[in-house]
C-alpha cells in the first residue's frame, strides 16, 4: 500500500487486504467506503461487491473512488484503466471490471481517491438483545420506521440494522460532517422501541467512534471470532429511488426477521442497509 497524502490517493496491490489499506488510510487522516472484514481482499471486494454499509451514503461505492487500475486480461494483455479511458473498449472494460472483474482477468493494483477523515463525525451502536424472534420482529419494525422516516431523508446520517441468530438487534449509526443535531438524543426512537417491547438495551453509545478508522475497524475482533458455516442472509437495498412503503417494512420484519429460522444457524445475520442513490 502506498499513500500520496498531498493528492489524497492510495494505491493498493492486487493482494492487499483491508486491514493494511484501512490502517494506511487512517494514518493519512483519510476515509474510504470499505467493507466490514479486515481479511477481505481490497480488489476482490472492488470487483465483486464494494457496498459499504457504514460509509456508502457519504462516500459512495469503492468503485466510484477508482482513479486508475492495472488489469491483466485473460489473454495476458496489461491494461491501465481509468474512468476517463479514451477508447470505447477500455471504457467498457473499466466499467465491467467494477462488478464482473473476476470473470475477466486480474487486477494487479488500484489507485483510489480518499475522502478527508473529517467527513466522518462520530458513530456507534445501540444493542438490544430481544431474546425471542417475535420480540425482535416487533423491535425491528419500529426501528425500520425510524430508519425510513428520519434517517433516509437526512443525508448526514446512516443507519444499519443487523439482527443476529440470538435475536439481538444492533443499530449502527454513522454521523457525517454535515450532521447538525445531538447524536445521542437523535436515536431516542430506538430507545423508545426497546421500551415499547420491554426489552433491555445493553449497549447505548452512538458516539463511541470518533475517527473513521475506529468505525472502520469496529467489527474486526468480532469477525475474527466467527467460526463455522453460517446460514447468512444478506439483503442489501441499493439505489432505490423511493422510500420503502409499509408493506415492504412489514415484509422485512415479518418474513426476513420473523419468518426465517435464524436460531438454526449460530451466526445467521439479517442486514438491512440503504445507501444513497448514486
Ligand atoms: C467478513 C466479511 C465481510 C464482508 N463485508 C462486505 C461488505 O461490507 N460489503 C461488500 O460489498 N462485501 C462484503 N464482503 C464480501 C466480499 O467483498 C466478497 O466476498 C469478496 O469477493 C471477497 O474478496 P476476496 O479477495 O477476499 O476473496 P477471494 O475468495 O480471494 O476472491 C473472491 C473472488 O474475487 C476474485 N478476485 C480476488 N482478487 C482479485 C483480483 N485482484 N483481480 C481479479 N479478481 C480477483 C477471485 O478470483 C474470486 O473469484 C464481506 C466478506 C466477508 C468474508
Automatic annotation (TrEMBL):
Cofactor(s) the record lists: FAD
MF term (GO), any: oxidoreductase activity
Keyword check for Flavoprotein: yes
A Pfam short name: FAD_binding_4
Keywords assigned by UniProt, alphabetized: FAD, Flavoprotein, Oxidoreductase
Domain FAD-binding PCMH-type: 1-117
PANTHER family: BINDING OXIDOREDUCTASE, PUTATIVE (AFU_ORTHOLOGUE AFUA_1G17690)-RELATED (PTHR42973), FAD-BINDING PCMH-TYPE DOMAIN-CONTAINING PROTEIN (PTHR42973:SF39)
Family: Belongs to the oxygen-dependent FAD-linked oxidoreductase family.
Protein name: FAD-binding PCMH-type domain-containing protein
